[in-house]
Amino acid sequence: MSLAPVRLVSTPSQPTPATSPVTVSRWERIHAYRWLWILALGVFVLDQATKLLVSGHLAFGTYYPPQAITVVDGFFYLVHVGNTGAAWSMLSGKSGLLAAMSLFTLGAIYVWRHSLGLRLLPVQISFGLLCGGIVGNLLDRLIHGHVIDFLDFHFGSYVYPTFNVADSGICVGVFFYLLYSLRSSQN
Description:
Elements: E1 6-8, E2 22-24, H1 26-31, H2 34-57, E3 69-72, E4 76-83, H3 95-111, H4 113-116, H5 121-144, E5 147-155, E6 158-159, H6 165-186
Antiparallel strand pairs: 1-2, 3-4, 4-5, 5-6
């Protein structure tokens, strides 16, 4: 892989003497997406670090006290469970399909990065969170055959589906992108 500059040539409809080809190095192109990279790496590292901690301190399948860690009694617990599906256990048992969908999604984001407006800061923040979460859960599926979930919230008799840092990155990233898209379409 060479770091030699790549020559990008823009051809205007009417050439002028002041028009000249623009040379942009690979580093400059990568740097243009720096916030996407920083946030994606941050979400990925935090996700994997928290999953390592949970795996090291709680036996797999730990869901109820006294094995689970009570953070706020009756509301918030740290557990150690596996999810072979997507959010709310949709497509349970289809980890291979979900891993393929994750790879396809990451590829689509790369291919359509210009159409998505990934050079804009709000879009980079949204997709940085999203991509970091996708890669975190993808790695779990490839290594464990399931996603490690550990954040467990109870709201009275309702038990919210257990999730992890990667899931949070995905949801918050999608929410911010939708919010940004709605606000920019109104302007």
